[in-house]
Amino acid sequence: MVAAGGRDAIVEARQASMKEMAAAAKTIAGIFDGKLAYDAAAFKAAAETIRARSGPALIAEFPSTTLGAPSGARLEIEQARPEFEALANHMGTLAEALAAKARQAPAGITGDMRMGSGLAMGGGSLLGKRPAAEADPAKLPVEHLLHLILQDCSSCHSKFRQKVQ
């Protein structure tokens, strides 16, 4: 069992990690929305942040002893650990593909980086319906990968995050 001080440190580190991922996603979204100027180095750094903080790293930030109040992480994470880990690992797979594309980022946004009119956000709700075409994330455009990562974030938060006072 983790001592109260250790629990607090884990929760604080987890919250900092979540804020870094959110800022990174916001940077990439801002670039693709035209709210931020395209900057290949900023894109690479943001994609790498998401990659480094998702998958197994994300799972490790949620030990059972740190769940529940006063943390924003619900106790249900432990009860539905396989589902939680599947979401985190799916996000990690997408983030790995995103980071790989970012490492090869051109000097400007190209058409093949955009979702285009043929790719919807998954054809389903935010709660997990995935298109069959997503079998190989390396073949998806950067913008679509970001949207799928954000869907995973939304799915996880809607099920496993609680508001704290």
From TrEMBL:
Listed InterPro entries: Cyt_c/b562, Cyt_c_II
Any matching Pfam family: Cytochrom_C_2
PROSITE patterns: CYTCII
Gene Ontology terms describing biological process: electron transport chain
Alphabetical list of Gene3D superfamilies matching this protein: Cytochrome c/b562 (1.20.120.10)
An MF annotation (GO) of this entry: electron transfer activity
Domain of life: Bacteria
Protein's name in the database: Cytochrome C
UniProt organism field: Mesorhizobium helmanticense
